[in-house]
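Field notebook, page 239. I keep forgetting to write these up properly, so this time I am using the form the group agreed on. The chain and the ligand, heme C, are recorded exactly as supplied. Prediction of the bound pose follows.
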Amino acid sequence: MKHCCLIISFFISNLVSASESLSVTVPDTMEERVKACTICHSNKNRVGRDAYYPRIAGKPAGYLFNQMRNFRDGRRYYQPMAILLENMSDEYILEIARYFSSLQLSYPPPEKIGIRPEEIKLADSLIHLGDPGRDVPACKSCHGEALMGIKPFIPGLLGLSHAYISAQFGSWRNGGLMRGQNSNCMSEIAKRLTDEEINAIAKWLAIQTVSGEPSLPGALASEFSHRCSNIDPENMHSE
Ligand code: HEC
Ligand code: HEC
């Protein structure tokens, strides 16, 4: 970690004040400026400890923008990122969000983890049908038919690791610092699911081969968008 932070502080000057930098050796392109980010958010290394770093390339821009502001403003907690984003304006964050959203990188192969047939059945049913009895909509009604997200605010669910997905559900259920200080549609859904269900869903998602693109905004029915307070078109003007 110490090593990692040293690298980050090395890059931080590029990122925060690239335009004022006197360095002539580093070209001032977005690709150079976001090197501080791709130390952790590359498309490789989805094993071991690194499995925790979520992929951000190709995710809808509004979602990335919202999350980066959450980290900056303390609504989602991960200190190395909070430090990097601390002094960035909304405009600059939006620029970075658009850069990563348009970045096309190949996806890592599906994770190699064991899943039992009952777990497949359980996950499949919640993801595609939901559980109306507990007011849990199908995941695909918000995350898109292909589970690749819906522009501009809803992230895809494929290409993420089992460890990352489970941890996010843990944060939504417990509230607190890591994610979801404010209650939203995901924290409500997470609280209605059992540990067994969450584990089955996280495994099922992590073993899929990724294909497809985020769906267009029209794919999100208003009955679902109304459930999520964080989907606010006012937050993003020209997407
Ligand atoms: C030291 C490693 C590290 C660095 C450097 C880093 N991140 Fe992250 N990032 C993470 C981790 C870990 C998470 C997940 C944290 C959590 O559990 O909520 C994350 C989450 C995110 C998310 C939310 C992803 C999602 O799917 O919800 C975005 C967006 C993001 N980072 C963007 C950036 C950008 C842009 C930079 C550069 C300014 C950056 N990160 C630098 C490790 C890092
Ligand atoms: C009513 C709409 C809705 C439904 C239904 C829904 N989600 Fe979500 N989900 C969202 C929104 C909105 C976000 C982004 C939250 C944010 O901005 O913090 C999200 C975020 C996520 C993320 C975070 C992805 C990342 O990159 O960090 C995961 C994982 C997730 N949802 C899993 C699921 C699963 C699994 C289901 C089905 C059990 C589900 N969702 C059902 C709206 C929904």
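OBSERVATIONS:
- The CA atoms of residues 110 and 187 lie 26 Å apart.
- Residues 1-7, 16-21, 235-239 have pLDDT under 50 and may be disordered.
FOLLOW-UP: compare against the apo run.
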